[in-house]
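Molecular record:
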Amino acid sequence: MKLNKITEKTTVSAQISAADIDAINEAGIRAIICNRPDGEGADQPSFEEIASAAQMAGIETRYVPVQSGMVSDTDVDAFSNALKDLPRPVLAYCRTGMRSATLWSLNEAKKRPISEILAATKSAGFDMNGVARRIANGGKTPADTGDAHYDVVIVGAGAGGISVAASLKARKSGLSVAVIDPSDIHHYQPGWTMVGGGIFEPKQTSKTMGSLIPRGVKWIKAAVAAFEPQKNAVIIEGCRVIKYDRLVVCPGLKLDWAAIEGLEDTLGRNGVTSNYRYDLAPYTWQLVQGLRQGRALFTQPPMPIKCAGAPQKAMYLSGDAWFRNNALKNIDIQFMNAGGALFGVKDYVPALMKYIEKYDATLNYFHNLVSVDGSAKTATFEVRKPDTDVQTITVDFDMMHVCPPQSAPDFIRVSPLADAAGWVDVDQATLRHKSYDNIWSLGDVMNAPNAKTAAAARKQAPTVADNIVADIRGSSPVSAYDGYGSCPLTVERGKIVLAEFGYGGVLKPSFPSFLLNGTKPTRAAWFLKEKMLPPIYWQAMLKGKEWMATPEKLKTPAE
């Protein structure tokens, strides 16, 4: 933790933890303002954890959350009111400190000259020149001129973003490419199911972002605030402007923990867990090992979600552990699914149903989790069965694995790039934006009707790279994405049902059936998941090596 003092009364920092409170207290800080919304990062402590530790140290706290890169006038007013109410010195924190520094700068613009603001923030390690332009422009960031310009700008350094950057550099090494992402750590999220099942250690699923950005690619460590596609500009936090010739948009999904009342207050304790968070997946395994009797709930929200099989994977691996330690007969497994089917591709359902029977799990369709009372260990669901009135039921639990509702990030949903539902609007074959010819999208945020999985991004990245290079050469799109996605359904320790499919649920097996029959549980698929896919991800996919990911050639109407 580094404390960046702007003035004697105000300090800002990157994300803090409860363990930092003693040092913060020793530094003389009397109040803390949290500017980072809960659930923004995969390894982020909640505000309640920070506030609890601060209270014990006699430090006051305020929660003034601001969406990443999107500091509004209302946010500035809320920050100003917090400063008025709290004792000084005060520490404000967010993911990197940039949001907090921006809030301070915009608040101080009412009473300090811009030169003084720039000097104070610069001494604390923050460049507020973009904020100065916003102040001078009446509150709006001018996008006509930029702080930097690149041939290709990529928003998001997840599986899709790093893969397409590597694929572009492999095809055209002279391109100037920038990746915009505020995260210090890159996570291999498909591995979190295995952490929750006691197979992987958490450290196997993460690497530093800096170690993964392809050579020759500029990493802009910042959050995106807005898009100005008419001016070929991306506005990032600190009100800086990045210009591009071509843009790729792939920032991943927003996990909306707050949409379930009471959930954020109880995550990580009271038997409530989720493999969708890096720091909670180990708690899943801890709960599974400790539960010898009682009721275990596994929830799945309305689609779309990333890796639609993940909620039931947690159920299968838990059931298998209880089967092996002879506790299963005393555990009531309930799968609470907001949808109306176990899996969206019917060819895989028979194999999955055999495991539902093996673990004696009850399938509850059209049950959507709406609230949790952790201390009482109760969960409330809305039941919306077809042609019946909506009902509300409350269920007791001893353990609950929650999959949160998911959506495109706010800065995508409110942008000119989004369709009516909030997803980036692309042609499902070329992945090119339907309205802006120099913009492409891949991964979880675009609206093609495919499964949102890392395996899908592995096939999408070469397609986008091919088509961008063709566009640079003045050609029409040359490659097509066929909707491929893969979901290795971990039905027991040592066996997986390897679901592979494309648009419309058409099966797309990667291997001959005599080697690996994806519609049946096999040890070969488990070996692929446990031993082969992680190195393929780290050493091939993220480095532009397109093993078994060659894009299809785009068929013209004449063909």
User: Anything to note?
Assistant: Residues 262-398 form a domain with the FAD/NAD(P)-binding domain fold (CATH 3.50.50.60). The chain has a mean pLDDT of 94. The CA atoms of residues 227 and 234 lie 5 Å apart. Residues 454-472 form the longest helix (19 residues).
